[in-house]
Structures are given as structure tokens and as C-alpha cells.
Amino acid sequence: MTILALETSCDETAVAIVREGNSGSGSDLLASEVASQIAAHEKYGGIVPEIASRNHLVYAPGLLNRAAGLAKINLSEMDAFAATSGPGLASSLMIGASIAKGLAIGFSKPYLAVNHLEGHLLSPFFGNVKKENQIRPNISLIVSGGHTLLVQVQALDEYTIIGRTVDDAAGEAFDKVAKLLGLGYPGGPEIESHARGGDSHRFDLPRSMPESENFSFSGLKTAVRYLLPKIVERFCEPRKHSGLTQAPYKLDGQVLADLCASFQQAIIDVLVCKTIAAAKKYRFDLVTVSGGVSCNQELRKQLGEACTREGFEFKSAEPWLCTDNAAMIAFTALLRLQAGFQSDVTEEIDPNLALAE
């Protein structure tokens, strides 16, 4: 069984082909192609939906041909086609879903609409799931630019959200603080890079909602905003001119490293603490993490160490599976098709699609 999937939920155009392993054992990745749009959006400090959707139309045909060529398979030989149906930008989702539906109709094959968050949720198990032993129960932390979720996973399609952000997602907070500091986009890798060698205890920043299973990072971002003038007064010179695309302060050297490290550690502390607490409360022995922010090496390290201390098994998605990609969508579609799920080609995209109630 071979599935081709498209992922166009935001600004990455991606195509992947996954094949079921022999006797239903695991799955093989035949091709995974991604066209990044970071350069196109970087000067705006964020995603511009019109530019993203236009570029999806430009990149998708070439990626389809390249993926099929790498997999050495014709599109007509696919057993099913899949695409991300939400959540995401409506104009972007429409491109991938329309292409996948058209291919499914044209070749008279099944179509599967896949939840982007379910793709992240299952990515730690990529390639290692057998039919008779689908997805192991676990507490999952999904942490990305637009989402921060704690999820109870019992099995495929059996999910319960136990914690979510009430304002900014962790990745969003990284982007906003990076912009405050005059760093590049996306903010997560920029802050992580500057945090190396920094003192994570130098600046006292808040850890919000410690007793709740939900998350809040807006207050942390605001704390950095109010701290900056005090840091500048002591260590730096304010910029004479500040525009919409220019941070009002320019930090560098050890001060910048220490502030980035302190901010990053505040986010990590919250994510690790709440994830471990959930695993204890709901009595799961496996903890997983996925999503773009989980590429952060310090988060992986500290969450893994916390799991070891508490006696939990820890699984993280491979870094290349954490950012937006079609491999996780194809893998999820394969599992769902094996379990008897299919979608109607009339099914609409949903920019606000929920993973679970």
C-alpha cells in the first residue's frame, strides 16, 4: 500500500510518498520533498498568507514530479492520496487539499483528509508501527509556532486534550521575543543559537500558571518587553530611530546570550514541568514530544532527562519530522487507511480544525 500526501497548512510546500512495510510491518519513506518559504516571509517578520498560497501553486507541481521520480513510481500507481485539511491558513490548505482531491478523483483512488496536529502527534512513531500494535498509549506534548498542547493518547484516533495554551503558543512567544531583540525570523532557532553559552539564571522571568495543565506565554513575552529598557539603561545604548520592522534596542554579547538563555529556560521549565506532571497524574509510562519547537536541543535534553529521573520512557520525533513536512501526513494517512478510515472528496478544509474535544 503506497500513499502520496501533500502538506500546505502554512508556508512550507511539501510532498511525501510512504509505503507500507512487508506484511504490514512498519512503513518505508520513499520520498519527502519540502520547499521552504522562509526567505520570502523573513522581511515581514511573519507569514503573509497571500504570498504563501501563491508559492504553493508554484512549487507543488515540481515537488510532485520530483517525489514520484525519487520513489520510482507513477502517480497512477498510488493506492491513496492525502492532504492536510487543517488547522492552518485557509488559502494555503486549499491548495494541497485541492491537488490531492483532484489526483484521487482522476485516478479513482481513496482520499484522506489529515489533521496537521495528528501528523505531529504520531510523528514520534514514524515508520515503526505494525497493524496489530498501532500507537502505544502516551502523554504527548505538541509544541509549535501556533500550538502548545498536552494530549492523552490511548490509540489511533483516541485523543483527549488535557492542556492547551490560553494565549500565545510557545513558538509564537519565541518569534515575538526574537523580534523585540532585533533577531531574525523564525525566532526559535535564533534565540536557541544566542542562548548557547548564556547564563539561564541571570534574569528572573515568570513561569505562568504553575498549578494548571494549560499554558500561558503572553506574560513571559510582556516581562521581557518591560525588562529590556532596564537592561539597556545598564548595559546598552538605545537606537536613535526605531521603525515597525526594527527593534527599539540592540543587545549583543553576553547580555544578549544571558537574556536569550533565561527566556528559553523559562519556556522549557513550563513545558517540562507540566508534561511530567501530566504523565504522573494520568499514569502513563511513555512521554512523546513533537512539533517545530521540539527541534530545540535544550528542550529535548531536559525533557528526556526529566523522563529518565521519573522512570518514564521518552520518544521524540526526529528533527526533520518536527517542522512542517508531508512525511508525517502520509504516515498518518497510512495508519488511518489501514484502520479503515477514508474521507469524502467533498470534505471541506477547516482552518480551525481541532485535534480532539
How does this model look, in words?
By secondary structure, the protein is an alpha/beta fold. It has helices at residues 38-42, 49-71, 90-106, 116-122, 170-180, 187-195, 218-235, 253-282, 297-310, 319-322, 327-338, and strands spanning 2-7, 13-20, 27-35, 80-86, 111-115, 138-143, 148-155, 158-164, 286-290, 313-316. The protein has a five-stranded mixed beta sheet with strand order 3-2-1-4-5, sandwiched between helices. A five-stranded mixed beta sheet has the order 8-7-6-9-10, with helices on both faces. A hairpin with a 2-residue loop joins strand 7 and strand 8 (158-164).
Average pLDDT rating? 92
Number of strands: 10
Number of helical segments with 4 or more residues:
11
CATH class of the largest domain: Alpha Beta
Radius of gyration: 21 Å
Count of folded domains: 2
The ordered H/E elements are EEEHHEHEHEEEHHHHEHEHH
Write down the overall geometry.
Answer: globular
Q: What's the architecture of the largest domain, going by CATH?
A: 2-Layer Sandwich
CATH superfamily of the largest domain: ATPase, nucleotide binding domain
Key words describing this protein structure:
alpha/beta, Nucleotidyltransferase, domain 5, 2 domains, five-stranded mixed beta sheet, 10 strands, 42% helix
List the SSEs and their pairings:
Blueprint: E1 2-7, E2 13-20, E3 27-35, H1 38-42, H2 49-71, E4 80-86, H3 90-106, E5 111-115, H4 116-122, E6 138-143, E7 148-155, E8 158-164, H5 170-180, H6 187-195, H7 218-235, H8 253-282, E9 286-290, H9 297-310, E10 313-316, H10 319-322, H11 327-338
Parallel strand pairs: 1-4, 4-5, 6-9, 9-10
Antiparallel strand pairs: 1-2, 2-3, 6-7, 7-8
